[in-house]
Design a protein that fits this description.
Layout (H helix, E strand, L loop, with lengths): L1 E3 L1 H4 L10 H10 L10 E2 L7 E4 L5 H15 L3 E5 L2 H5 L4 H18 L4 E5 L9 H23 L4 E4 L23 H19 L22
Parallel strand pairs: 1-3, 1-4, 4-5, 5-6
Antiparallel strand pairs: 2-3
Length: 222
């Protein structure tokens, strides 16, 4: 389940797929069976389900997750959220507190889940207050993941603000990667490495079977 705001939804990409098609290709080439889940559909790709909500803060995304996570019981959730908190002056402490609450909820709602948490994209040449907030959020997200690992919880980091993420000059604003779709492709590579990290720890389990209902197959997913 890709969970987040505009980047997750695919805004700014030429086809609306964002990083999702690139990531799906990497995972299938690596031998994984992939089925994105979410209450929304966006992009030209066939498997275009997503839990992407442009413009929402972490606490608002948590409300969406409370509906979608129990419905789909994903075995893997990719979270990219927090920039909107900075844009709305909610502050870094508010962001990390809400993120911990969101992760704890997801872990409790889907027993086989692993969580990959992304750091935020930061541009040096944009709104300084927003960028300063994003850097502080990133530091706190990194610490949050280390704390979760110390507690033997299945949470890993996807460091988009690291060497493998989109280049600073490839950002069209403080919310989305630019440079055509190259920025989204770089994001997919970072997600992929983090998912492989989770797999190497033996965390990835088959998703739970859901009760039969119209429009779903035997695994309970589209």
């Amino acid at each position: 389940m890709p969970l987040g705001a505009s980047i997750t939804y695919g805004e700014g990409s030429s086809d609306g797929n964002g990083y999702r098609q690139y990531l799906r290709d990497l995972l299938t080439e690596d031998g994984h069976i992939v089925d994105y889940v979410g209450t929304r559909s966006h992009g030209t790709m066939g498997d275009n389900d997503v839990e992407g909500w442009p413009g929402l803060r972490i606490d608002q995304l948590a409300a969406k997750a409370e509906a979608s996570v129990p419905a789909y019981l994903p075995n893997l959730v990719l979270i990219d959220a927090g920039t909107v908190n900075c844009l709305q002056d909610a502050g870094p402490d508010h962001a990390v507190d809400r993120m911990l609450e969101l992760i704890n909820y997801i872990r409790g709602a889907s027993s086989r889940v692993s969580v990959v948490l992304s750091t935020l994209l930061v541009s040096d040449n944009k709104n300084n207050e927003t960028d300063d907030c994003a850097r502080k959020v990133n530091d706190q997200f990194r610490s949050l993941v280390l704390d979760q690992l110390a507690l033997s919880r299945k949470v890993v980091l996807a460091d988009m603000d690291g060497p493998g993420g989109p280049e600073v000059d490839a950002l069209v604003d403080t919310m989305r990667p630019g440079d055509g779709d190259a920025g989204f492709e770089k994001m997919a590579a970072v997600w992929f490495d983090s998912i492989r990290d989770a797999a190497s720890r033996g965390w990835l389990e088959a998703p739970q079977v859901l009760p039969s209902s119209p429009g779903v197959n035997s695994t309970g997913r589209n």
